[in-house]
Design a protein that fits this description.
The complex is a heterodimer.
Chain A (H helix, E strand, L loop, with lengths): L2 H10 L5 H13 L1 H17 L11 H28 L1 H28 L17 H11 L10 E2 L7 E2 L5 H17 L21
Antiparallel strand pairs in A: 1-2
Chain B lengths: L2 H13 L3 H19 L6 H18 L9 H20 L28 H19 L3 H11 L5 H8 L3 H23 L1
The chains are: A mainly alpha, B mainly alpha.
Amino acid sequence: MSELDEKLSVVLDQYSDDEHSEAVLNELLDDVNLQYKMRRYQMIGEVMRHELPDQINPDLTHRIMSQIRQIEPEQSSAAITKTSAQGFTLPWALLKPFAGIAVAVSVAVVSISLWQTLPVNPQPGDDGEQLVSVEQQKIKVLASQPMQGNPVTVSSNLGGGTRWIVKQDTPALQQKLNGYLVNHTEYSNSMQGLIPQARVAGYDAEQQ
Amino acid sequence: MGSNLLDAELVKRVQAGDTAAYDVLVQKYQHKVVNLVGRFVSDQAECYDITQDAFIKAYRAIGNFRGDSQFYTWLYRIAANTAKNYLASRARKSPNNTVDVEDAEHFEGESGLKEYANPENLLLTEEIKQTIFAAIEALPDDLKSAITLREIEGLSYEEIAEVMDCPIGTVRSRIFRARDVIDKELRPLLE
């Protein structure tokens, strides 16, 4: 007979102050023998009230706790996940409006990337003819035809750069080249009327 | 902090990951849950399987228990639903189950577990009952009255003190001494 046993008896009767109950609880969790005593104290009441099952199973607690210890790691990881989620409740609430923007930006980036990876020129084996516009076909036809008229002198100044320099006394050639450049720029990538970004074609403005 | 508050504290500790606290809750309520489940199923093995299942379900769900009700009320609800689901899955009903789910925990009738009894456990249970009743009979009158008023009549310490015309401290001591005497007889059976 100990003071702790008496406190246990009082706690089971719901007649104890917080201080004593806390002490009993701590002892109860650490002391298996005290747990058995609690079980027997309860059993006394159950027998007196005719509430004890017709046959008890002494292994039931062990069976239940064995099962629970098997699922405990799973439960613990779930608890950790839950705790983590709870810990970030406020920041997430603040960040939530930006999530939509982030998704929109991601979609835009992917779209632009895909657009830029589209083949500019038909690759060998591709059915590129289906993608070529009517205007491009006209250009192809023109390009395949022999140039009419007198040959135009175009000089290359490799020492000053890689650009062709068109002499100023050949306005017809300048106009023709301008036309080619405009056509090329507008119809490249098969996107009529749209000027693709980062695709600049030109010739030296410092015409002689 | 009484027994209900003790339950609340145990639940808090389980929610914090202390499995030992759940062990205490299982020990405390296993017989009550077995009795409840016994209203639904008549087979002993099934009864204990459902009881086990109910405690495991309660453990899994205890993180969601907010303490709006008493722990045992919540546990009984889980046990009753587990038994009902079991019966539904087996598409059969217990022949003795004429009790509404809500009333099952307060049902005073006989449990339907006798037919499938395990002789060894039956004998042990019978021995426990006989030992406890014999020990109570052998108690001095003041201890016997105190423990009877508490366990059978359900009186509070104050009410017992009034009935027995003694201080509350004496009531507390008498109830404990009665339990301690009975426990000394009971302990060898369960070791």
